[in-house]
Amino acid sequence: MVEQTNQMMNQDPESLEELESGSASFSALVQQLTLIVGEAGILFDADELLVYECDGYIVDKTAPDIVVFPTTTAQISAIVKRCNQFNVPFLARGAGTSLSGGCLPIGGGVMIVLTKMKNILEINLRDRYAVVEPGMVNLHLTNALKGTGYHYAPDPSSQGACTIGGNIATNSGGPHTLKYGVTTNHLLGLEAVLPDGSIIELGGPTAEVPGYDLHGLYVGNEGTFGICTKAIVRLTRDPESHRTMLAIFQTIGEATRAISEIIAAGIIPSALEMMDQGIIQAVEEAFHFGFPLDAGAVLLIEVDGLEIALDEEVRQILEICNSCNVREIQRADTPEERLLIWKSRKQAFGAIGRLSPSYCTQDGVVPRTRLPEILEFIEETSKRYGLRIVNVFHAGDGNVHPILLFDERDKEQIQKVMEASEAILDKCLELGGSVTGEHGIGVEKINFMSRIFNQIDLATMETVRNIFNPRQICSRDKVLPPHQTDGSSKITQSHPTRHAPH
Amino acid sequence: MPDSSITNSTLAPKEIEQIPGSEIPYEKFLDCIHCGLCTAACPTYLETGNENDSPRGRIYLMRAVVDQRIELSDAVKGHLDLCLDCRSCETACPSGVQYGRLIEPFRVDVHKLESSQGKSTQNDWFHRWILYRLFPYPKRIRWALLPARIMQFLKIDKLLEICRLQYLLPQKLRRMHNLLPRLRPAEPSSPEILPALGTQRARVALFTGCVSEGMYSHVNRATARVLQANGCEVIVPRTQTCCGAIHYHSGADREALEFALQNLAAFELEQIDAIIVNVAGCGAMLKDYGHIVDEIKGVPTEQVEQLKQLATKFRDVSEFLFDLGPVPPEGEIPIRATYHDACHLVHAQKIQNQPRKLLELIPGLTLVPLNESTICCGAAGSYNLTQPEMADQLGKRKLENILATGAEVVISGNVGCTLQIDSQLRQARKPLYVAHPMEILDLSYRNQKLQM
Amino acid sequence: MSSLHSGDLEEFVPASQIELSRFITENAIAAQKQIFPAGGRTSFSVCCPSSLSGTQICTSQLNKIIDYPVRDMTITVEAGMRIDQLNEIISAEGQRLPIDVPQSNRATLGGVIATNTSGPKRFSYGTIRDYVIGISAIDGKGNLFKSGGRVVKNVAGYDLKKMMVGSLGTLAIISQVSLNLRPKPESMCMVWFAFDSYVNVELALNAMITSGTRPTAVEYCNSKAARQIAAESRLELPSEHNVICISYEGPGNVVKWQANQIIEEWKEFSPLNSQIIEPDHATRLYNVFTEYQTSSDDPVTLKAVVLPSQMMKFVESATQLNIAIQAHAADGIVFGHLPDSASSLEDVKQILSQLKKSIDHKTGYLTVYQCESEWSDLLPLFCSPPPGWSLMKQLKNALDPNQLLNSKRFTELVET
Ligand SMILES: Cc1cc2nc3c(=O)[nH]c(=O)nc-3n(C[C@H](O)[C@H](O)[C@H](O)COP(=O)(O)OP(=O)(O)OC[C@H]3O[C@@H](n4cnc5c(N)ncnc54)[C@H](O)[C@@H]3O)c2cc1C
Ligand SMILES: Cc1cc2nc3c(=O)[nH]c(=O)nc-3n(C[C@H](O)[C@H](O)[C@H](O)COP(=O)(O)OP(=O)(O)OC[C@H]3O[C@@H](n4cnc5c(N)ncnc54)[C@H](O)[C@@H]3O)c2cc1C
Ligand code: SF4
Ligand code: SF4
């Protein structure tokens, strides 16, 4: 059976054309695409394509041959049909904040950039949904909802820039995932142009639709199931109020125990972020918030909900923290104080920048209770490789983001960073976790797929992908490991440089 | 093509002068981690959706030019020229990238390179006469505006508009014509020293600026009165001059330096607590003197130190009053107003809350939030004249957001924004009034009503 | 409800997923018999039509706990585990799976996923798709595949878990499931409102979107259903009119505050009656609401999914046809028990076509939720093809190329 699936996938991306700039087919394709999107909607000068050679992941780089900016679904369908006709690969790009190289145009071809499709098509509060175009910036939707009492819940740390289409493709989460869930929990339906150019609708604005949950299957496809052209998303009621606390612990173990007990007490905080000693020291060095330098961990805890429920929740949280030997708790009672507490968390970025010329963030997940083990392992790894590694992450979900500090001009350190990252992710797997909680597999972690999944799992995923994208003409060589190593054309591998933490 | 090598050390020394940006410290490029968080904060990217018109893209382009991966082609230059230098990207950046310290020196280099090749934009009539000879001098501006004032008085300008005669003017002049607000009679110049009202709490100097003194002298007077009402003795040195921003931003760094030195001489630093600025654009430039002298070659160390010292003295008026602790104004001003964040206040100087807090002190005034209040209105110094299309798009965008608030008054702390927004409102025939925060505060302190 | 079927039916009771996988592989190579996954058989009659012949896969032995790291609040169990058994295990730790399942003493986890079962709480907690974090299943060729894992946040690989939700045993047999759990709430209460006009019901529901309270469920029933629900719950409740019943969960004082608050807020819609039902009674009433969708002896139960704003229009037409209606009102999900008078297939078809008219076919669906087993061959489960139907067919063919998994039902889903 496995052989059978293998055969299907062997009609491989090999057969796709590589465009040669200036060649006859290149000019013909440019001409055809210009007819669709107009002259202002296309780029094909090498100078202007350069910025599209990578996204938020900058280790691998290759530029597309052509970039188009469609404004309608019909244009996208026409573009995709031309690509099929010319047999060249294509892929979607939103804001290009992917941290796993989801927008890397392997094999060149046409990049379909959705930033001009950013309108809100409908907001329906009575039925609690909104219909938006895929290039809509996540935060812009929530801004547009201000004053209505509703918001769009998934809030990746990149929400000020990333697009809803990109969120759907990567099933994005954020600091509020613990309580509110990730993108897939908030997507009701979508419209997409399939890799053959046909237009389909999946799901819809109603609470459910009979049959297989294809829009659910679509979420997290990392751009390999065609181009999402419209999204119907669930709107969520705003919480009436917030309480924010900063709890300082002597050890990571105690902080983790506090997390588990808070949740066991029936409280689901809206955010539970942890900073370890390394990052506390870094933040302190840079900004002097007044954290004790010998503290093992700082927890940022936020609860939200009805005003009348919150004081009791806070009381319970304080009690639990005390029983876990908390050293000190700061409470924010006014919006200004709340901002100040969040500032210490958000300033972590800036602090890291001051410590080291380059850094690289990983995205492992472990069961919540295994946090002490993975953090201990990270510390050992740091010692073993002589690299400074600091941690600031979504503790409630067990989603760790170890940040490896190094100097990109030192080749030896680069090698060590690669090895240390791999060791940490392997450890996450060993502890029953995953190698990616939110950034996706992309091209970055493709080698891990065969460690997480067996042949049959991968073959089944391939079977499913082939229904949408049989020839891999749409975003080839992502998510699933390619079968033959064809020394994937034209990609410049550099090295990990600075890699956004959050 | 070389890969994105980390330094440009492979270049032969003589070539370096041919490469714009090659003297920018390379770490400043490395600060950009390519996360893209700045993209949606960038007005030009919001309009075009093209990564080349985004901060991340522009940094990538500049770095690629420095690394000699690409030439500074017309297309590349076009994307860089489209930048408003509004620094919205700096506010959004988690990594502390100093975008202004990349694009500004890069532009200076480009201008120099071009003038050495004899194709500088600085040599056209517009830059030579209007930007350089007129703008720095308030008197000349006032003088040049005289015909406009007379025309407005006689309503001839309306006639011109009706007959569409203004289309006979060169395009840039026509834009300037369209930008012109309903001019008020110039205020008599203020005395050099104005006493504090009540107990004296501070001694400050007032920076009066060129365009603002030329067109909005009433704002300068209002600012002085508000400072007085807050217990400040106000000194207005006659020998001060233009901040030099227009020159510096269009690559004329020598002229800019001269202005800076003249200002250095004008203010007696030991005797004042602060130099108050009420124009965001000037404030940002003045506070940057310290950085700028580092980028200009051959300035004597002593002058560098003095200019750095001078730079630390400048305060935006809202910032200063907020820190001082404002005396609550009492006159009621019953209006529905909205506040637009001038780029050079919010992004370049990180001043966002202070003006709002001051305005909220005014009895009767309702401050309605403005959507995208921190996105540039398209004024951006002389941008309005050099990139008309984008300036108009952004102006329209701002106009729509303003109209959506239902406010009667738009408040903003920058002359450029005031001109741009006012011109948009007039073109759309909307009767909203555009004011500086100090104008409204002054009315409240003096218990007077707003005449719209 | 009968789970006995005519036809030539064998039964296979696998002891492990490996054994099951082997069985299906051999069947695919050799016998190529029809395979019918069966859990608690609570909805078997409708999901697997009566004339079946082939092998029933009884999952009753696949009922072990694989891993329950209590403090991580996740659990991995085999798919044949009964919902009551699961609830008992996790309830002992103060945890729950917040999905309402009727006949939970019989229904299995696999069956719940395959039928995407949910109840009143779906308004606040979502459905089973939101709690499955990992899944293992065996496709028509016998391939045992998995997707997801055992951690709550994970984006490695395609989300095949979602594909299995609502697949009615036609794509693969679910063998093992990892779930994300939630803490049990401290207490709950319900508020029962009676309204004499549809207009006021609609106004009240519309006001719900900005209410100061955060209900966990908003149930509507017409008087015919209200009478049955009141009787079943053995509570004195006014049931001659339209009823909206709202539930709140959380700490005692918060629940109480919300109950009083909603009564205050809804005064302007002139309810005939409003009554707070205290915790002990409320649990009983809540269970009746959960069971009601499957509790009828009537010949046919329909399910309609419409936009909440369109719901009352549908309810009105259904009530005119003497159908007993219960609805998860804030989600626009309506269950209707047809009257006994609809005694022939013709009558049922007549009613179906009548009701379809009051549904906007672009944003609404009418499905047969339950029917007498002899009719299940003749009534399409989905009355019209859902969006993406052609892709669904391709998916079916790819995972079950020999059309062995409950295939007749699949082809009959939309075509009569
Ligand atoms: C500083 C920083 C913080 C981040 N924080 C988070 C976080 O908290 N949580 C999180 O989940 N992620 C986070 N990310 C990762 C990233 O922002 C998300 O994955 C985001 O959803 C990507 O959106 P985008 O619009 O930038 O997509 P892009 O980067 O443009 O694309 C990402 C992938 O989606 C595909 N794609 C984009 N649009 C479409 C479309 N319309 N149709 C089909 N495919 C499409 C692309 O082909 C690509 O494979 C962070 C990134 C950065 C740089
Ligand atoms: C159309 C429909 C009708 C319903 N009718 C009723 C009803 O009459 N009474 C009631 O109480 N509830 C009904 N429900 C709700 C729901 O079916 C049950 O509450 C329960 O969740 C089903 O569990 P079960 O174990 O009894 O499944 P079963 O009734 O045994 O099976 C239901 C369907 O799920 C499939 N299935 C079962 N286990 C697996 C597995 N491990 N892997 C793959 N597929 C599997 C079967 O093949 C069958 O198609 C209905 C739901 C739907 C969608
Ligand atoms: S936000 Fe800062 S670091 Fe990120 S891309 Fe923009 S400039 Fe670079
Ligand atoms: S300065 Fe303004 S216009 Fe220029 S890149 Fe930054 S945000 Fe964009």
Tag the structure with descriptive keywords:
heterotrimer, B: alpha/beta, Fumarate Reductase Iron-sulfur Protein, Chain B, domain 2, Rossmann fold, five-stranded mixed beta sheet, four-stranded parallel beta sheet, globular, disordered N terminus, C: alpha+beta, Alpha-Beta Plaits, 3 domains, binds flavin-adenine dinucleotide, binds iron/sulfur cluster
Give a nutshell description of this structure.
Chain B is an alpha/beta fold. Chain B contains 25 helices and nine strands.
What does this structure look like?
- The complex is a heterotrimer of chains A (502), B (452) and C (416).
- Chain A has 502 residues and is an alpha+beta fold.
- Chain A folds into 4 domains: 2-110 and 442-493, Uridine Diphospho-n-acetylenolpyruvylglucosamine Reductase, domain 2 (2-Layer Sandwich); 120-237, Uridine Diphospho-n-acetylenolpyruvylglucosamine Reductase, domain 3 (2-Layer Sandwich); 239-336, Alpha-Beta Plaits, CATH 3.30.70.3450; 356-434, Alpha-Beta Plaits.
- Chain A is built from 17 helices and 22 strands.
- In chain A, strands 16-13-15-14-19-21-17 form a 7-stranded antiparallel beta sheet, with helices on both faces.
- The longest helix of chain A is centred in the C-terminal third of the chain and has 20 residues, at 411-430.
- Chain A is globular, with a radius of gyration of 23 Å.
- The two termini of chain A are 43 Å apart.
- The relative contact order of chain A is 0.14.
- Mean pLDDT of chain A is 90; it is low at 1-10 and 484-489.
- Chain B has 452 residues and is α/β, with parallel strands linked by helices.
- Chain B folds into 4 domains: 16-119, Alpha-helical ferredoxin (Fumarate Reductase Iron-sulfur Protein, Chain B, domain 2, Orthogonal Bundle), CATH 1.10.1060.10; 125-179, no CATH class; 193-322, Rossmann fold; 328-445, Rossmann fold (3-Layer(aba) Sandwich).
- In chain B, the strands form 2 sheets. In chain B, strands 1-3-2-4-5 form a 5-stranded mixed beta sheet.
- In chain B, helix 24 links the parallel strand 8 and strand 9.
- In chain B, helix 13 packs across helix 25, helix 19 (317-324) packs across helix 21 (353-360) and helix 23 (388-405) crosses helix 24 (415-427).
- The longest helix of chain B is centred in the C-terminal third of the chain and has 18 residues, at 388-405.
- Chain C is of the alpha+beta class and 416 residues long.
- Chain C folds into 3 domains: 1-184 and 387-416, Uridine Diphospho-n-acetylenolpyruvylglucosamine Reductase, domain 3, CATH 3.30.465.10; 187-292, 2-Layer Sandwich (Alpha-Beta Plaits), CATH 3.30.70.2190; 300-384, Alpha-Beta Plaits (2-Layer Sandwich), CATH 3.30.70.
- Helices cover 32% and strands 24% of the residues of chain C.
- Chain C has 14 helices and 18 strands.
- An 8-stranded antiparallel beta sheet of chain C has the order 14-11-13-12-16-17-15-18, sandwiched between helices. In chain C, strands 4-5-9-7-8 form a 5-stranded antiparallel beta sheet, sandwiched between helices. A 3-stranded parallel beta sheet of chain C has the order 1-3-2, with no helix packed on it.
- In chain C, a hairpin with a 6-residue loop joins strand 4 and strand 5 (74-78).
- In chain C, helix 8 (223-233) crosses helix 10.
- The chains are: A alpha+beta (502), B alpha/beta (452), C alpha+beta (416).
- At the A-C interface, strand 10, helix 8, helix 9, helix 11 and helix 17 of A face strand 8, helix 6, strand 10, helix 9 and helix 13 of C.
- The structure holds flavin-adenine dinucleotide (2 copies) and iron/sulfur cluster (2 copies).
- One flavin-adenine dinucleotide sits between chains A (55-56, 91-99, 102-103, 114, 134, 156-158, 162-163, 165-167, 169-170, 172-174, 222-223, 227-228, 438-439, 475, 500, 502) and B (35-37).
